[in-house]
Amino acid sequence: MGKAQYEPLFETKKEKGRILYRLFATSLLCGIILIWSYRLCNIPKPGENGRLGWIGMFGAELWFGIYWLLTQSLRWNRTHRHTFRDRLLQRYGNELPRVDVFVCTADPAIEPPIMVINTVLSVMSYNYPPEKLSVYLSDDAGSELTFYALLEASRFSKYWLPYCKKFNVDPRSPAAYFTSQSASDAHFSEIKKLYEGMANRIEVACKAGAIPEQAKLEHTAFSKWDLYSSKGNHAAILQILIDSRDEETKDVDGVTLPTLVYLAREKRPQHFHNFKAGAMNALIRVSSEISNGPIILNVDCDMYSNNSNSIQDALCFFMDEERSHGIAFVQFPQSFENTTKNELYGSLRVIDGVEFHGMDGNGGPLYTGTGCFHRRDTLCGREFSKDARIDLKSARPGKTEENVHELEERLEILASSTYEENTQWGNEIGLKYGCPVEDVLTGLTIQCKGWRSVYYKPERKGFLGVTATTLDQTLVQHKRWSEGDLMILFSKYSPAWYGLGKLNPGLLLGYLTYCLWSPNCVATLYYSIVPSLYLLKGISLFPQVSSKWFLPFAYVIIAELICSSAEFLWSGGTILGSWNELRMWLYKRTSSYIFAFLDVMLKLFGSSNSTFIVTPKVSDEDVLLRYKQEKMEFGSASPMLTILSTLAMLNLFCLVGLVKELIITREVGLKYAFETMALQILLCGFLVLINLPLYNALFFRQDKGKIPSSTVVQSVIFALSCVAYVYY
Ligand SMILES: O=c1ccn([C@@H]2O[C@H](COP(=O)(O)OP(=O)(O)O[C@H]3O[C@H](CO)[C@@H](O)[C@H](O)[C@H]3O)[C@@H](O)[C@H]2O)c(=O)[nH]1
Ligand SMILES: [Mn+2]
């Protein structure tokens, strides 16, 4: 094709209004600098009241200001992507590359098999040539129930795939499709009935905790579970359920089906399994001997495909003749199906709607796990080189002489728990080990090798998953993320030193923003405790309202509040949602981040081990009901909850103490108090206001989601002693 007619497969647009934003950010920076100057110039002399508190305020504001500066790297250079699928099909319709999809599951109890196979079915039915598509399910529990469900799904797919194609439906997760549709023609009822039959059989098996004897007789694979002892202790089980090279396996219309493989890697108590990263690496090896697709898509078991064209979209970024060469991976945003209108537990809205566009403008987003397309060889450690073009037409391993059983047996060795000993797997090859956010670390090293990545957020969401439905789950998940990100900062691959000179400076700062999530806890804790306590003591920490120094404080606070709410609304959130987001911002910083920060510090000094607490994807009925009503679920006692309620109580006591002085004892005049303490009163008042749901759960609620009485007692005692100590 001549250069003149070159039509790109994707286009990149700079965000409109960037100049305006940059002006605004610069003005905010001026405000911040003024605040710093005010603090520095007004530190009370040694011996004067409030010197220590003042110095602390300076520290906190210095941190907030610097951190805010870092976050500008995520906003300065935002870009948006658009793909041209029709051009892709026109040019490469017949030579599309093979694509391997990896689905990961870890525990049938909190990731129900019926949900897992809905995800599997949704990715099997992509709008893509089936002979070029292979789907691998990694089951870290090695559960017979999950395997049984997958076997059922492989049978159902013979009806489901033709149906999807014929009626061009979306989403292609049957469960999601049937809940979104109310059509009632004969085809619909027929396929729905088939699905319900299957779902019913799976549910019965899961309830009983055992699969029907009949199924065992029909499929020999179940004998592989004869030696199974537990989810942490079992041999590798590999089962090729559909091999698209087989002539006999066709759907009901006689069309080839995608390859479908079940893999439970070997697990032994004496061998550390490295969580999802270990599962992914086993999948990379096994798949390389079956389909060896040059493009790999990974999804979590709850993240079904919501858009049947996502593979084609992603390929537009890998197959453009002029601009695809340096692109290693394409990350889609993480969206959720079970969110409520005002997202009580916060959301990834601003990350997805603003920040990742900013990362993309600087060299590409982080690899955040699910919904990411990779080139196989960059995932396996290939360095970038200007000249060496990557071939997406790599050969598929031919069908060998061995029969399927021999093949499975041979490949099970690749998934054994000792296979990686004395190899570079988890280090130079595949996903990196040793970090709770293995994906972010892996993506970082790929970018350090000279590759870039792409953030693609299509109109119709690519993937939909299940988000946490209780406060505790949310905080635990954010602890894992923020802990992992901070570990990266101190790791061999730290963006701060390893990335220096390898990454675009803007990208490096972007990584730092995420790595430094958890240290934010220190300044936030300080800001939510000390000003309120000083308020009670009658010591002012902010400029008087009539002072000219009041202006920069007012400007920075108001502008930042408006800007972050605007970003939230702009990304599709509601006003109440933005208030909830603010609350979660506070809660994460004063619980998840504290524990993440402490854990990383402990690790640096050699103790404590990483864990991966898998987020539950199902909840009890009453919990679910409260979730839908957006009633915060506190539930069980935990150290994180104790901190949150202690902080809330502390601020309540301070505010009540102030009101008592102002109105009842009238020790200080109302006017005088506002003149000298306005910002402190506002801050304390804000902290009380945002904690209203927490007070409700402490003292008034009767349902199971309330705060347990042990926590109530603890937090009141802690807060009272703190206040008493300061006051007397
Ligand atoms: O030992 C394990 C643990 C987890 N998983 C799977 O990993 C996925 C993610 O686990 P989940 O508990 O849902 O974590 P999330 O915090 O929701 O996951 C986000 O964060 C992870 C990194 O912490 C990324 O890997 C994920 O892709 C991303 O969706 C799930 O499919 C699990 O089944 C395994 O396969 N093996
Ligand atoms: Mn998840």
From TrEMBL:
Transmembrane segments: 20-40, 52-70, 508-529, 549-570, 591-614, 634-660, 672-695, 707-727
InterPro entries: Cellulose_synth, Nucleotide-diphossugar_trans
Key word Transferase present: yes
Cellular component aspect of the GO annotation: Golgi membrane; plasma membrane
Superkingdom assignment: Eukaryota
SUPFAM superfamilies listed in its UniProt record: Nucleotide-diphospho-sugar transferases
Any one GO biological process: plant-type primary cell wall biogenesis
UniProt binding sites for Mn(2+): K276, D300
Keywords: Cell wall biogenesis/degradation, Glycosyltransferase, Golgi apparatus, Membrane, Transferase, Transmembrane, Transmembrane helix
A GO MF term: cellulose synthase activity
Residues holding UDP-alpha-D-glucose: E111, D140
Active site (catalytic residues): D140, D439
Membrane topology qualifier: Multi-pass membrane protein
Cell compartment(s), UniProt: Golgi apparatus membrane
Family to which the UniProt record says this protein belongs: Belongs to the glycosyltransferase 2 family. Plant cellulose synthase-like E subfamily.
Function: Thought to be a Golgi-localized beta-glycan synthase that polymerize the backbones of noncellulosic polysaccharides (hemicelluloses) of plant cell wall.
Name under which the protein is recorded: Cellulose synthase-like protein E1
Source organism per UniProt: Nicotiana tabacum (Common tobacco)
